[in-house]
Amino acid sequence: MAAHLSYGRVNLNILREAARKDLREFLDKCAGSKAIVWDEYLTGPFGLIAQYSLLKEHEVEKMFTLKGGRLPAAEVKNIIFFVRPRLELMDIIAENVISEDKMRSPRDFHILFVPRRSLLCEQRLKERGVLGSFINVDEYILDLIPYDGDLLSMESEGAFRECYLENDQTSLYHTAKGLMTLQALYGTIPQIFGKGECARHVANMMLRMKREFAGCQTQVLPVFDTLLLLDRNVDLLTPLATQLTYEGLIDEIYGINNGYVKLPPEKFAQKKQGEGEKDLPTEPKKLQLNSAEELYAEIRDKNFNAVGAALSKKAKIISAAFEERHNAKTVGEIKQFVSQLPHMQAARTSLANHTSIAELIKDITSRQKIPPPLHPGLYLTLLHFSIIVVLCCISCVPPYVSASEAFFDNLTVEQEFMTGVDTDKVNTYIEDCIAQKDPLIKILRLVCMQSVCNNGLKQKVLDYYKREILQTYGYEHILTLNNLEKTGLLKLQTSTRNNYPTIRKTLKLWMEDANEQNPNDISYVYSGYAPLSVRLTQLLARPGWRSIEEVLKMLPGPHFEERQQLPAGLHKKRQQGENRTTLVFFLGGVTYAEIAALRFLSQMEDGGTEYVIATTKLINGTTWIKSLMDRLEEPPF
Amino acid sequence: FYVRASYQEGKLETRVSLLQSAVDEYNKAKNEFAAKATEEEIRLLRFQRRVEEEKGERVLGCSLHDTLHCLLTLGLHKQAEQLYKDFRVPDKRYWWLKLTALAEKEDWEELEKF
């Protein structure tokens, strides 16, 4: 069921099992039949820990989502609320409980806070006069959720916003707690490295917690050799760029949620004879994506340009395998063939699925034609001529450019910024996009990217962009712009020196000759740009951070190194040729492309280090910027 | 925070006065850009109100860009022109706007003129 978790170097299934055990214990505390009322946000992460079947074994008969008003009818003895500690949710629960008390025979209420109980919430329940109705008020500690064989996430959406915008360190506390749980299961991690303010806080908290537990040392042989804590604001650039790995693109275009992706159904329609076009499914197709699927594990981290080749190779292998049946002569051979059938069938379905997904993505990304670079002055004069032409082609509806062209133009501009071309001027492409009222997030991503690559924008340029955005998208976005400035994504150039080029050169962030088919460097994940965060990780392993001291000073926040004493006798004796294992923790989110780059490093033959990745949230540029936006609901006039 | 409060106000007059306080606050905080942007928003709201009263079209609360678009599709070129000058909209964006709006309306004659 969760086999993909134990494939990796570190068996993350242990963590999952521990989480399941806690859940079972809680469920058994409430004897008799139960109904669970879910905070909707939690169902996704919980699905990764326990399927419905497990809940059913413990007499869970009904499940509802939490909403105001009355609970749906259910003949159960216990009602359990699974919620995040949020005040607004408490009000809903109170409403539920009160209406329930009036209506039916008394039953037992329980509440389970995930990941921590909060005094504030209990106080709120008390105010509403319902706290006494609960028999059990408990917490379920779910910090790090295993996503894949080498990937852990806390799935706390607001972590970046809380840490860097609101100065709220709750999620850092959860991080430290989560890491302590991890150390209890996998042994103390001897070496801790870190870069950034938040990393420093987490490390301090961990060391303090360790002192508090000084009495009870865990007697587990350490699995991880090193822990690296990285602040997201050390590398703001990477998430802004469009990811170009297969998995990254799926996430950019369709969004991956808790390991599932929803896709438009047209391409997946089963073609049956005699069936009309009418019966096309209208529900989006939901697919689970993880390394348990052999094919997906193989192609997820490839640059998208190399996926096609991999798919067709696979197709050949599968059809060859099916051809084998003609060669099977003896009964034994036939039996062997039949025994492989289910596996082959599964492989064929997965191939079909991924070919469809790849087609969908290709529609959006393929380079149909490369637009010639236009001189801005020329552009305006050309505009007048092209108007007539354009108008003949389109009847009336925007967008004027096809999706693939827009994608390619966008990429070109991103790459110009990353290589440092004209980052100090107002960019004409961004201007055009604003004029055509492209999605605001796309604009913000580009503007922020320009700001980061230029170490801030000049007053004139910055004000121009801000004015354009406010005039086009509405004054209410002034708060969002303010947030972006506060987190440093958008800033005013204060010193005349732009240190991004220095950073880029020293860390080799831009590789001209990125090889997309057979990569030899991590820069393949962005077709040229090597993610700064991953480069730092790579350099830490070899030759060490001392060699890049100068650059580290240019990046925000302190860098540090700590050692944790191991109890005697637990020092690992390294065998010849055995790799080191490093846990990289991204505070504030990580992208799929960065994960791909780290997996690539793990696989490098002479790398000597294997990586396990943990984060507060899996992000992409869009979800990230969205978490920083302030939406104001407008009342009708 | 006055800006947030202003959006919870359904009535125009209260909103304008709240925004005015926001301007004062921004000025105190020496955030010139935000102060100016807020003043412009107030002016825009007043303008939209005038248009609504005169033409009976609902434009209140839209962004400047949307307001312009709305005016152009309605054929209110004079008002649009005035807004464009008052708020110093960059030429390029205004052209784009005019183009899309006119094309949507399929008002080829006006396009020729322009």
Automatic annotation (TrEMBL), chain A:
Coiled coil: none
GO biological process, one term: protein transport
Gene Ontology CC, one term: lysosomal membrane
Membrane-protein topology: Peripheral membrane protein
Compartment list: Cytoplasmic vesicle, Autophagosome; Cytoplasmic vesicle, Clathrin-coated vesicle; Early endosome; Late endosome membrane
Swiss-Prot/TrEMBL keywords: Cytoplasmic vesicle, Endosome, Lysosome, Membrane, Protein transport, Transport
InterPro entries named in the record: Sec-1-like_dom1, Sec-1-like_dom3a, Sec1-like, Sec1-like_dom2, Sec1-like_sf, VPS33_dom3b
Pfam family, one: Sec1
Family assignment from sequence similarity: Belongs to the STXBP/unc-18/SEC1 family.
Function: Plays a role in vesicle-mediated protein trafficking to lysosomal compartments including the endocytic membrane transport and autophagic pathways. Believed to act as a core component of the putative HOPS and CORVET endosomal tethering complexes which are proposed to be involved in the Rab5-to-Rab7 endosome conversion probably implicating MON1A/B, and via binding SNAREs and SNARE complexes to mediate tethering and docking events during SNARE-mediated membrane fusion.
Protein name as catalogued: Vacuolar protein sorting-associated protein 33A
Organism of provenance: Scleropages formosus (Asian bonytongue)
Gene that produces this protein: VPS33A
